[in-house]
Amino acid sequence: MANGSHVLLAHAHPDDESCATGGTIARLVAEGHGVTVVTSTQGEQGRIAVPELSHLHVDQDDALGPERARELDAAMSALGVADHRYLGGPGRFRDSGRMGIAANDRADAFWQADLDEAGLLMAEIIREVRPQVVITYDPNGGYGHPDHIQTHRVAMRGVELAADPDAALDGPVWDVPAVYWTAVPRRLIVDELTALATHADELGLWVDPDPAEYPDGVHDDEEIDVEFDVSAHLDAKAAALDCHRTQLTVKGPYWVLASGRGMRIQDREWFIRVKGGHRTSADYETELLPVAAR
């Protein structure tokens, strides 16, 4: 950790870290910052993009979790991450599946996790690694998935508990200086999806028929604080995405989900700062770490 600073990223399932923050992770590691990635579940309920692995689905062998865990190990290597953890250990919490399905109600589903109990698990990690920055999702989890929403709640509760001297935790308190939520600028996503839709057939992609209604982690431009340039780390980001073959396929400059929905592999990643102050200029900021930690 040449720069003496640390960033913790809290994600819901294997592949989320690469889809939402793969370039950021690769850049931070390359710059010598410490990076810890915490994953809430092994993604046991996920859809499967590769037909020959369809037997792993929850409705057949129910063996997707271990395969996604292997994919995540490979993605961590591609991004250069040495410190990856499952919240509470591997298998502590199970993928809850999409909102409203029976899997949400399983006793071991992450959606059913007690917020303070899971928050303490996150706070333990925060006190141990003492990050200058914590990154997670917005309150809707980016797109309304139960585990993404719960990851947001648990990460934010973990930040609170880590700074609470009365919390039932070991180690000295740690007040995280900056907290960010992942985001995508609305203007950019509408423009990109509109342009992509004109080539969807030739690319073999499915694109939302009304890009303006695209819901996944989209925020108005003025809400966003940081545009982080990851263009020098696109190869690492694409390699990490390519590791998650049960969930998506990399096709040149695009990544395609099991649903067929395609998106460009972005050379920038965007963040809303919810602790540490909103930007004061009209332009995006370009750095994530507080000045003292750079």
From TrEMBL:
Its EC number is 3.5.1.103. GO terms for molecular function: metal ion binding; N-acetylglucosaminylinositol deacetylase activity. This is N-acetyl-1-D-myo-inositol-2-amino-2-deoxy-alpha-D-glucopyranoside deacetylase. Pfam families: PIG-L. It comes from the Bacteria. Gene3D superfamilies: LmbE-like. The keyword Hydrolase applies. One of its GO terms (biological process) is mycothiol biosynthetic process. InterPro entries: GlcNAc_PI_deacetylase-related, LmbE-like_dom_sf, Mycothiol_biosynthesis_MshB. Keywords: Hydrolase, Metal-binding, Zinc. NCBIfam families: mycothiol_MshB. The keyword Hydrolase applies.
